[in-house]
Amino acid sequence: MEQIYTYGSYLKNKFGCKVYKVGINISGFTCPNIDGTVAKGGCTFCENDSFSASTGKAQELKSFHLNLSSKENPYLDKQLEQLELQFNAISKRQTKEYGAEKFLVYFQSFTNTYAPFETLKALYEKALSFPNVVGLSIGTRSDSITEETLEYLSALGKEKEIWIEFGIQSIYDETLQRINRGHDSANVKEWILKSKEAGLNVCGHLIFGLPGETKEMMLATATEAYKWGIDSVKYHPLYVVKKTALANDFTKGSFIPISEEDYIDVLVKSLQIKPKNTHVQRVTAGINNDSLLGPSWCRDKNTQIKNINQALKSIGLKY
Ligand code: SF4
Q1: Ligand 1 touching residue 43 (CB < 6 A)
Q2: Which residues are CB-contacts of 222 (< 8 A; sequence separation ≥ 6)?
Q3: Which domain holds residue 292?
Q4: Global pTM?
Q5: Which ligand 1 atom minimizes the distance to the CA of 51?
Q6: Domains contained in the chain, number
Q7: For residue 41, how far is its CA from the centre of ligand 1 (angstroms)?
Q8: What CATH number does residue 284 fall under?
Q9: What confidence tens digit (pLDDT) does each residue in 44-56 have?
Q10: Fewer C-beta within 10 Å: the chain N or C terminus?
Q11: What is the DSSP letter of 236?
């Protein structure tokens, strides 16, 4: 049975020890698709409130939002403090529970290049100053990263492990419009290619089960994303949570989520055609709480992984 090349193995091979991603949520960050710059309301599946941190300091920052043209950031010190608190707590737990030895600081929630350059620089540099941090992984949108930031990250990438994570989701513009994505597929391709040219590592996020898509379309998205040269990939099924535009469509019956059988079928085919050196960071997703409206198979991660491995077995692969 051939083991699929995972991100964990890549990091272990490169750094010779267990490297864990430390997911960070910085208050004050938002998304141009939420604040009205490119659209309002966000992607139809995005429960924007669920991204908000809820600690005391985060509450103070809740109504404050940065964007690319913000002239000043009076909360930078608080954001830096929040970064340190989160890093310390999470990395300590990862060391204790999983034996993590080194870390990548993962700017995870919202659009983490969507702020004035000086703010980004301060946060990234602070993150890189923490003990045993080997690099950064920055989740963002392709329409929200400037040439200045790219150039800066490219220079950082000569010394550190720097990743940019782009939401590709689909290569079909009609789908991107339907989910209110606020940018087209050409824009994602352009910035992935630019990031690669700048010597950065790129992770692409794909969603299977988007409204109106056939399995052939999902597979075509994976095929195209591999051609763009992504180094790493995260596959997700589209699931519906409360308080989203998609929840209304689901309740009305105008959106039917992908079945587990179809998801696994597309996933297995996508893994089969994936270039060997593209590592896999995630093969599924879900949420096990009251906010999930459907599909119910997205509630239980262990069963999902078990079923995926069962299907992979037939083609000689395991995850
Ligand atoms: S780009 Fe991300 S944060 Fe912004 S609306 Fe879409 S899912 Fe939400």
Answers
A1: yes
A2: 206, 233, 235, 266, 270, 273, 274
A3: 2-318
A4: 0.95
A5: 3
A6: 1
A7: 9
A8: 3.80.30.20
A9: 999 875 334 445 5
A10: N
A11: E
